[in-house]
Each structure stands twice: as C-alpha cells, then as structure tokens.
Automatic annotation (TrEMBL):
Keywords: Cell inner membrane, Cell membrane, Ion channel, Ion transport, Membrane, Metal-binding, Sodium, Transmembrane, Transmembrane helix, Transport. It catalyses: fluoride(in) = fluoride(out). The gene is crcB. GO terms for cellular component: plasma membrane. Its main location: membrane. The chain crosses the membrane at residues 44-66, 78-101, 107-131. This is Fluoride-specific ion channel FluC. It is a multi-pass membrane protein.
Amino acid sequence: MSTLSPFAATVNVALGGAIGAVLRYQLGRQMTGWMGAPAMSVFPWATLAVNALGSVMMGLLAGWLIRFSPEGTEQFRLFLGVGVLGGFTTFSAFSLELVLMVQRGQLAFAALYLILSISLCVSGLFFGLTITRLFG
C-alpha cells in the first residue's frame, strides 16, 4: 500500500515523465548525429533503441523491486517505472505486463494482449491519420 499522498504520487510521475521524455528526445538527437539523418529517415532506429533500452531498464527495475522490496518502493516505482520509463517509452510497460502474464501462466491472455495491443494501436493510428486527412 502506498504511503504517498495522491499529490505526491502525481508529482513523482510528472517529474519522472518529464525526465524520461527529455531523455528520449536527446537520445534521438544523439543517434541522428551518430548515424546521420539519411539513415534515421530509412528506419526508426531511435524508436527501436528507446523501446529496447526502456524494456531492459523496466526489467531491471521490476526485478530489483521484487527481489529487494525495500521500504518506499512505491515512490521508486512511480518515479522510475511509471514516470521516467513511461516518458521514455510506453513499450517498456507493455513488455512488463506481457511478461508478467506469461510468468503467471496466463498464456491465452498474454497472446490476446499482444495481438490486441499491436492491432488496435496500429489501426488506431491509421484511423487517426485517416480522420485528419478527411477533415483536416
């Protein structure tokens, strides 16, 4: 149970999210500098790197929180997991949730979550683009 007030929890998430978003932006800029704009325009290298790195970091954080369960883990979870990694990449949260389902033996739900997440999110993006093209 969280000992943080709702306001403190929200501040932790907001500050972490701001840091994560800036880190994502800066990594994209650095990668463009390293690889060059032409390479970055052919394939979304920065997005792939952010999602992969964020998923590894989410795994490390979740493993640390599970293994050590120190006092005040709710603040770490909110600031680092929901905030920083959420701002850095939401794919890390998706990856954690999917792996937890698999580890709990909820294979059917994991498969459904995987299929629905990809199909709904990609089709949702297409839908949004279509709406803006029709009415924009």
